[in-house]
Amino acid sequence: MQPTRTPVIGQWPAGILLATLLSACASTAVVQNPPLAAALPSKSYVQNDGRASTRPNTILLNLAFSGGGLRAAAFSYGVLKALRDTAVSIGSQPRRLLDEVDAITSVSGGSFTAAYYGLYGERTFTDFEKVFLRRDVEQALISRVISPTSVLDSAGRTESAIEEYDENVFHGATFADMVRSDGPRIVINASDLGHGVRFSFVQEYFNLLCSDLASFPVARAVAASSAVPVLFSPVVVRNYPDCGSLPPAWLTELRQRDGNDERTTQLADGLASYFDKDGRKYVHFVDGGITDNLGLRATFDIIETAGGPQAFLDALRRQAPREIVFIVVNAATDPELVMDRSDQPPSLIETLQAINDIQVHRYSIDTIELTKQSLASWAKALSTPGRPVTAYFIQLSFRDLTAARRDVFNQIPTRLVLSDAQVDALIDVGGELLRGNPEFQRLLADIGR
């Protein structure tokens, strides 16, 4: 079985493929996002006034968890454990670096870890392995989808996946439960299949749909973030009629200042499309890895839509930090080019796989370069003569391992079931790569000073 960066049909077991064929014709969407009860909420999910302000706030620390099935979930969990075990001194006070994390953005497999930590905090380190990493989630999905009742159920395989995640992983939690005073902001991301928009499950974006995020099930958002097209039907939400508001000021301002920046223009046009209430009555969400497999661009989008780094910090009522830190947990693998060993034409699956890998790889490189440039620009804009701001970009990937060890991780597939040995290896390598990263060591040295 060949490894890949994102899930494709050829990697999944026959049971899921059979279930896909059986349920494809009968599947209909279930819509479960309620409309706003009144006016647009004054409090922002991203700003989240309910969070505690007891932390020193000298570090702005953001994590990004990539796609890659359970491989990504275990890898990012290993990084969380390593951050928990990293002691620093800030303002002469001992702190865990994990407690300085301000936000976690995620797609696909990484969204399971991000959402679980966002909901349960410290319980993650006692429960997450049992409820998700070391469970055969794949077999649980197969059992639900091909059971006699599910095959005939119009809800289809996507709803079966949502039920599995809701009952056995997230336990009925909604985004209202995600707001912990001592926790980071969790930004789960999916792809809008109809318009190519990268959609973040935050209230600002739900305002565009005239819908309430607080009562939206976390399991449904994670299922949307990881809904591989064809294998799973899109998660559908209703775009409710006008709720008495014009396009929000932040979107209007974004469109006014986009200038010649095609990325910003595309973002503004995509978000503005939700005001076509007749043409876009429903929105179909699929795997977030399609529009950003690193889970990284959401932070860039949020800061840019806020008006830049200073406006973003003003909205959070925070002073400029001394360190801006992005840690990207990239669970991508490099597939072996089997087709190049033969003069035979590649199969359809191999062709689709190669096209997918090329697109994901090149887009990820562009995302990394954009983030590095933006970080440097943000640090410069926030710096003052008496208080310089330093940027740190820390990317953790299997490419940093020796060739022999890298090959071991490249053989771990994008699945929802792995062996205990594979899970152990992924958790351990997450901590190993973080601790050994030169940029991370520079960060620790600078904090120490």
Tags for this model:
449 residues; alpha/beta; two-stranded antiparallel sheet; disordered N terminus
List the helices and strands and how they pair.
Layout: H1 14-24, E1 59-65, H2 69-84, E2 87-90, E3 93-96, E4 101-107, H3 109-120, H4 124-133, H5 137-145, H6 148-151, H7 156-170, E5 185-192, E6 197-200, H8 203-208, H9 218-225, E7 235-238, H10 249-257, H11 262-272, E8 282-286, H12 297-306, H13 309-316, E9 323-330, H14 348-382, E10 390-397, H15 403-410, H16 420-436, H17 438-448
Parallel strand pairs: 1-4, 1-9, 4-5, 9-10
Antiparallel strand pairs: 2-3, 5-6, 5-8, 7-8
Describe this protein's structure.
- The chain is an alpha/beta fold.
- It is 45% helix and 13% strand.
- It contains 17 helices and 10 strands.
- Strands 1, 4, 5, 6, 7, 8, 9 and 10 form an 8-stranded mixed beta sheet that branches. A two-stranded antiparallel ribbon has the order 2-3.
- Strand 9, helix 14 and strand 10 form a beta-alpha-beta unit.
- Helix 7 packs across helix 9 and helix 12 crosses helix 13.
- The N terminus is likely disordered.
